[in-house]
Write a structure and sequence with these properties.
Helices cover about 55% and strands about 10% of the residues. By secondary structure, it is of the alpha/beta class. The radius of gyration is 35 Å and the shape is globular.
């Protein structure tokens, strides 16, 4: 199966489609076409790299043939691009598919396309998503039409190299993490061929496949081979421990004499280093013999414990080869018919651990207990109670696929969350970044996950859960959908649940600013820079998406700000401020940095135009740096997209 995918994509993106798309995003058709011509080959290179490993090829095939991909997109594009809503939905779906196909977000590529073509970044982001949706849809149509298999996907993609090579450059491939053009072209074709051949005729499982070993690239000297060693010798010290324990219990059914274990510390330590072995070869009194036997068995127990604890492989071999499980020192101690007096602190490692955990000081320990106590002293103390709240946040794309972030306190909670999401949403129908922090409290919301999952399928829905506080925004805050009441019933009165609405937030901020600025307009008002900046920062300048034009809604508040600054300057108390622009984290980092600078300059220019001394104001953009709220929710992103007035000396 062979097809020119570049030609197929260009045929789908007709002049009519390009014209409609350009009108929706504010670009002339020729500019939109130039971005498409550069984006399609670069994205195909990314798909080739993904399919160059066995698991990558299978994952890409599953993505392309999934129900999320529209195989009829080529014929439906004229209708999808005829409205702004259709373009937004197509862009969102394409971005989601590219993230799954490339294992990375495509913003770095669209930022580079903006730099190379001179087209604004917000437009290259949209076009890249639409080209991605078209590409994957065309690829699905070809695979389904020819009843293609996983093995045919790498072969099909390898045929595209001569077609895309003239359009590639090092910077485009670097934006996708592929390195230079020469290195990419020199390796990817051989890898694709190997993957396709392996899928068609798998090699025996005992032999590592070339594509897997190539991907791992283990240095030749990193593997040390040695013969399997027998660990049968470990049985002898263990049997000696058992025999010694049984003998001592038989001789002293009422408990051990005090001097036997907890007596002279020097003698006890000497026993561990071989004194007991010498004593055993000479005629001594019964009590001396018992002391030697006890010390020897104690030393053997200590040695065996260290060996077993230090050699996981050895213990595994013993467990696999034994007809019955090997008894531990703790189980041996517990099987004794007579209780051990508490003064004999070195009787078992289990009692030493218990004593150390409880903080009790043991009486003079034997060699074994000294070893255990020293080992315990090197361990951290009892872990402090968790103090951080668990967190969950998700944003649902226009295609209905949620992207989640969460922080939980244990691997068990993480596994439970992933299992539940996979069971209810499907393995490829969500993206998740879940962190484990032992200082985090148990995630009580896991018990209510069933009720949250339906919200994770509502396009445009956003939720942030921090401890017992829940913020709803986007489609989740739409009163008509009723999610506020649904979640109140789901979580109960112990949770605080609220919604965020941009217009309501703007109205509240405007009211607060206009009330506060009256104090600065009063006679004899302060012109202290810190006080002025504090009031000016109450206003919200809500720029239109991807725009640096001062919005009409902010004009009246900026006029009031100019009045205050002009009054101070007339009184000889000029306030010097930096107008700082910030963004959220949506879009590329460089694009956000540039846009934030343009917005700061626009505000400064407006104020200077209203008479504020030009030398009293500077402008700087900081992009998505220094967020004041989480970017996981609409309310957080709204707060981060801000103009901030900073005092200057």
């Amino acid at each position: 199966m062979s097809i020119d995918l570049i030609h197929a994509i260009q045929s789908a993106l007709t002049d009519e489609v390009v014209g409609q798309l350009g009108a929706r995003i504010g670009l002339p058709p020729e500019a939109a076409r130039s971005v498409m011509s550069a984006a399609a080959p670069a994205l195909l290179a990314g798909l080739m790299q993904k399919a160059a490993t066995l698991e990558g090829a299978r994952s890409l095939f599953a993505t392309v043939t999934s129900p999320d991909v529209n195989a009829r997109i080529a014929e439906q594009l004229p209708y999808l691009t005829a409205s702004t809503g259709g373009v937004s939905e197509l862009e969102g779906a394409g971005r989601g598919l590219l993230e799954r196909s490339l294992d990375r977000r495509a913003e770095s590529l669209s930022d580079e396309l903006a730099a190379q073509t001179g087209v604004p970044a917000h437009a290259t982001h949209a076009i890249t998503g639409i080209v991605g949706a078209t590409m994957v849809g065309v690829l699905k149509q070809q695979l389904l039409g020819s009843q293609g298999s996983v093995a045919q996907l790498p072969a099909l993609l390898s045929h595209q190299m001569p077609l895309i090579a003239p359009y590639l450059n090092d910077r485009l491939l670097a934006a996708l993490g592929l390195g230079g053009v020469g290195a990419f072209a020199g390796s990817v074709l051989a890898q694709l061929k190997a993957v396709s051949a392996h899928i068609e005729q798998p090699t025996p499982t005992a032999t590592p496949t070339p594509e897997v070993t190539a991907a791992v690239q283990v240095p030749a000297d990193a593997v040390v081979r040695e013969k399997r060693r027998s660990h049968a010798w470990l049985w002898w010290p263990l049997l000696a421990i058992i025999a010694a324990a049984m003998l001592l219990v038989y001789l002293f059914p009422g408990g051990f004499p005090r001097g036997l274990w907890g007596g002279d510390r020097a003698a006890s330590q000497g026993a561990e280093h071989g004194v007991a072995a010498q004593a055993a070869s000479a005629p001594v009194e019964a009590s001396s013999e018992l002391t030697a036997v006890a010390a020897a068995s104690n030393a053997a127990a200590s040695t065996a414990a260290r060996v077993v604890a230090g050699l996981d492989a050895a213990s595994s071999a013993l467990a696999a080869g034994a007809s019955a499980p090997v008894p531990s020192s703790a189980s041996l101690a517990s099987s004794a018919p007579a209780p051990v007096p508490s003064s004999a602190s070195g009787v078992s490692a289990a009692s030493a651990v218990s004593a150390a955990s409880a903080g009790n000081a043991a009486s003079t320990p034997s060699a074994n207990s000294a070893t255990s106590t020293t080992s315990l002293a090197r361990q951290p103390g009892v872990a402090a109670a968790p103090t951080k709240d668990s967190q969950l946040a998700f944003i649902v794309g226009e295609s209905g696929k949620p992207t989640l972030t969460a922080t939980v306190g244990s691997e068990a909670e993480k596994t439970r969350l992933i299992d539940e999401l996979t069971k209810r949403l499907g393995q490829y129908h969500y993206a998740a970044n879940i962190a484990v922090d032992p200082a985090t409290k148990p995630a009580g919301w896991l018990a209510s996950l069933d009720g949250l999952v339906p919200l994770m399928s509502v396009p445009g829905a956003e939720l942030r859960l921090d401890g017992a506080h829940v913020d709803l925004s986007g489609a989740a805050a739409n009163a008509k959908l009723g999610w506020l009441n649904t979640l109140k019933s789901l979580f109960g009165p112990s949770y605080e649940i609220g919604t965020f609405d941009v217009q309501s937030a703007l109205q509240q901020a405007t009211a607060n600013f206009r009330s506060a600025i009256q104090g600065l307009l009063a006679p004899n008002a302060t012109c202290a820079a810190a006080d002025v900046a504090k009031v000016l920062n109450l206003q919200v300048i809500n720029f239109t998406s991807a725009s640096a034009h001062v919005p009409t809604s902010a004009v009246e508040d900026l006029n009031q700000s100019a009045r205050v600054l002009n009054a101070c300057a007339r009184n000889g108390r000029t306030v010097k401020l930096e107008v700082a622009g910030y963004s959220d984290n949506v879009g590329g980092e460089q694009a956000n940095l540039q846009l934030s600078k343009q917005r700061a300059q626009a505000v400064r220019s407006y104020l200077v135009g209203m008479g504020v001394p030009a030398d009293s104001l500077s402008a700087q953009g900081y992009g998505q740096a220094h967020p004041v709220a989480s970017n996981d929710t609409m309310s957080g992103r709204f707060a981060n997209r801000r103009i901030e007035f900073i005092t200057q000396q």
